[in-house]
Amino acid sequence: SFNLWQPFAGIYQPLKKxxxxxxxxxxxxxxxxxxxxxDNGNYSTKTKRSNSGIKSIQGEANLLKxxxxxxxxxxxxxxxxxxxxxxxxxxxFNDRSVQRLRNTxxxxxxxxxxxxxxxxxxLVSAKYSNTYTRYTDPDFLNNQGGLDERYAQQEVYGxxxxxxxxxxxxxxxxxxxxxxxxxxxxxxNFAAPRRISLWxxxxxxxTRSRWKLNASLLYTGINDKTATGTATDNKNKLTPAVALSIxxxxxxxxxxxxxxxxxxxxxxxxxLYYNFIGNSLLKPEYSKQYxxxxxxxxxxxSAVKRFSMGADAYYNEVKDKIIAVPNQNLFVWTMLxxxxxxxxxxxxxxxxxxxLSSSTGWxxxxxxxxxQALDITDQSSxxxxxxxxxxxxxxxSGLLSFNYKKWDAGYSALFSGTRYILGNNSSYNxxxxxLTQDIFVSRLVQLKQYKMHIKGELNNIFDExxxxxxxxxxxxxxxxxxxxxxxx
Length: 488
Fold this sequence. Notes:
1 helix
């Protein structure tokens, strides 16, 4: 549907001397002109989405080498390039949009692991990334006849980590990371920021037969400088984390888990400095997270072969929470801080599978989240204890699949409850919840040297009309047919 094409090819090739290389390449093309329905009483109309096409290509190459001393080296290089339209908000039947976004993202990284002896292990990592973004808006009213903004961001990252077994129960760990970031743009009087980030972490893992304790302390140091304007202040923060897991009895299928974590989040260069998006006055986000959970996992010898369940209750206290609120289009957002946010919730996950016969199997996965994220900054504000933007109380997903010999079929669903587009939870700002349902059928065909998988999908089978972001309608019913050849 919507003239979507997505070719993919990959090769996995073992080499001599314990080495493997793999190369993958994937393209994507879509018109994106899906049908939409604009609901406006007697003036409702059917039309098609415009300026939402995309062309992209991505590829990666990987090398894995194991040396004679059992140390390993992994190397990866990847690039993603895309050009897309940015569909606008549909307001008063006007869906005109001519803004476009182009991205070229490249990174290369490596990882070396070595065990010096049974007690001591070393991990060394390095990464370089280069991100280019170009945003154009011919309709923008200025003396240059529109916007043509270009951003180039680079990062060099290095990390070294060591673990040491004091005995069979106690492990000490230490890690040191450093990153250097720059951002340049063709925008007049651009800040041209530079950032040096340091992370130092020490940790301890203590394990007994039925319980395990992890504790760590992280130091974060951020130093920003800008060519123009005032850079954000230097930041130095210590954040601890403690996690405990307990098995009530030696053969018990239950596991109890608890953790406390302090998290420090620095605004990114995109958050701070992108024109029409960045807010140079953004403060760092700091949160305290509390979690208590339980898991149950058991094997059976009946039609149900395995059943597992996990449930977690959590509470987060967030200071200066960083949020992004949609604005003009899917590139221009508004970044802001909320002084104090209280988040409490429950996550429940269930997985089970089994066999109806020797040739027929089934699988079920369910996930549900209840969450309340409330703005508690100012008791005198009209939005006090209102939900923060685009955060539903209820959300979840489900999957049911069957396999019979060389056939597979399945059903999946995804839902989100009511949300609010602004911090003021009035009925005008309310955005309806939605439920999408998909089905698929696939068949394995054995050829002489290859296997061929044929798969058909029908997505949003009941043609649900919904917005993830208000005034930006999502696609209705669509189908996809895919063919996959491999010799694995």
